[in-house]
Write a structure and sequence with these properties.
Elements: E1 13-17, E2 32-34, E3 36-38, E4 41-43, E5 46-50, E6 53-58, E7 65-69, E8 76-81, E9 86-91, E10 95-101, E11 108-114, E12 119-121, E13 136-144, E14 147-148, E15 152-156
């Protein structure tokens, strides 16, 4: 994957199938992910999960934080909690969740919640891999900081690999 943004932003991109076969996804009730609070930042800045995932919000700073979201369908407010503590939220509804700290207005992050497992967060060089996609025709989208690419059509052969590049402006 490639795009015309600063290389540091590439790791914040998410590439995903617009839709996937329902039979391809078996929910797992024990899924957990982590959005840490460190140096008055959320780490990682972008987190992608499947619906039903619990996200832990540990506080690794030496100050209080109050993590919240007003995103429709995924609203929450964890209240103030001290260093070394953690609170969790289960995300059951697909969508984009904007996350903030009530105490530190410069802190923000994104959680993308999907109804299927066919997505990937790009690495530091902008590369991604979506594993286990069943053979078929799909539309693929790249998302970065609230901007989504136009869907690109891709045909995945049985047992094969397909490459797809994106440019986000």
């Amino acid at each position: 994957m490639s795009h015309g943004r600063d290389p540091a932003d590439r790791r914040s991109s998410v590439v995903y199938l617009e839709s996937a076969p329902r039979a391809a996804f078996e929910p797992d009730e024990d899924r957990r992910a982590r959005l840490n609070q460190r140096d008055e930042r959320f780490v990682p800045h972008v987190l992608a999960v499947t619906a039903g995932t619990w996200v832990d919000f540990p506080n690794s700073d030496m100050t209080y934080h109050n993590v919240f979201s007003l995103s429709k369908g995924n609203e929450f407010n964890l209240g103030r909690y001290a260093s070394g503590r953690s609170r969790a939220v289960r995300f059951d509804r697909p969508g984009i969740v904007r996350v903030f700290c009530e105490i530190h207005s410069h802190m923000n992050a994104f959680i993308l919640v999907f109804s299927h497992p066919f997505f990937a967060v790009t690495d530091d060089s902008g590369r991604y891999r979506i594993a286990g996609v069943p053979a078929g025709a799909y539309n693929v989208i790249a998302w970065n900081e609230g901007r989504a690419s136009e869907p690109k059509s891709v045909s995945v052969p049985g047992g094969g690999t397909t490459e797809l590049d994106f440019e986000l402006r």
